[in-house]
Design goal:
By secondary structure, this protein is of the alpha+beta class. It has nine helices and eight strands. A hairpin with a 4-residue loop joins β3 (97-100) and β4.
Length: 288
């Protein structure tokens, strides 16, 4: 059954006033700091989220002004999300909107005409509402991710990176642009207890307890997809897979908690990269 989409609601959430209004709208990417207006916990969440946007872009996983990364505001049922229309390079801690699980924009920078993408709200609010163990959610349209999402085989255990997802990866069939409230139920049902999912004919989706863990999981899934696309260029018959018991062992070793929570150790290095690339950058400082 085809989902029902409320196009007027989607336009309203994005604050889209019409094609002609774009010429006079306030679409500045200059946002004053709100550090003194929020709790220390929310500010740290904002800084980490802004850094994650920069990292997704730096590692070649952004898609113009599309897609979203969200994080739950500590101690609340609201989450932070990017304004619809900013490049990932432009997103700062103070530019992030705060949205509740019902799609209400609780806060956004004063004076801006940017809104929130309805597709981002549908996908991310569904996961945040259903999974208390997931604090951060990332959705991408990377080239390799979309390529594997279009393959009948899905992700194959061709590399050590991809073997970690064996038994830990969900799939969700394409239902059209994610603008329907009806799709929330199938998204959550398909994700199950997993933290990573391939949205068939669409892209990648991951979640983690923290931004650090979610980003690391996305990186592993993205590299897995890139390796698969490159390997299959030689032909299906030219690639080999390890024995099933070896694949299972690898998946167990890299499962969160077997050795460590992947992403936490790596995060300080990721922040150093963001800080280094922020120097002399023409884009706004991410932690402002």
């Amino acid at each position: 059954m085809t989902n029902t989409i409320d196009l007027d609601a989607a336009r309203a959430l994005a604050n889209y006033q019409g094609d002609d209004a774009v010429r006079t709208a306030n679409y500045s990417a200059d946002f004053p700091s709100i550090r003194d207006q929020v709790s220390p916990e929310e500010w740290q969440a904002r800084v980490d989220l802004a850094a994650c946007y920069r990292l997704v872009d730096a590692y070649g996983m952004s898609d113009l002004t599309y897609n979203h990364i969200t994080v739950r505001v500590p101690g609340t049922d609201t989450f932070l999300i990017n304004l619809y229309g900013l490049l990932y390079k432009e997103i700062t801690a103070s530019s992030l909107a705060r949205v509740d699980l019902d799609g209400n924009v609780v806060w956004k920078p004063e004076g801006t005409d940017y809104g929130v993408n309805a597709a981002g709200y549908v996908i991310h609010s569904a996961i945040h509402a259903a999974r208390d163990d997931i604090g951060a959610v990332i959705h991408t349209h990377s080239l390799a991710g979309m390529a594997v999402a279009a393959m009948k085989s899905g992700l194959l255990p061709l590399s050590q990176h991809s073997m970690r997802f064996s038994g830990h990866l969900a799939y969700h069939d394409y239902e059209g642009p994610a603008l329907s409230e009806q799709e929330k139920k199938t998204l959550v049902a398909d994700l199950g207890e997993h933290r990573a999912m391939i949205l068939r004919n669409h892209g990648l989706l991951v979640g983690g307890p923290t931004i650090a863990e979610a980003f690391n999981l996305l990186y592993q899934l993205e590299i897995s997809c890139r390796a698969q696309v490159s390997a299959l260029a030689a032909g299906q018959d030219a690639v080999q897979q390890p024995a099933p018991d070896v694949i299972d062992l690898t998946a167990h070793i890299f499962a969160p908690g077997t050795i460590r929570r992947y992403g936490l150790l790596e995060w300080p290095a990721m922040l150093r990269r963001v800080e280094a690339e922020s120097k002399n950058s023409p884009y706004p400082y991410y932690a402002s």
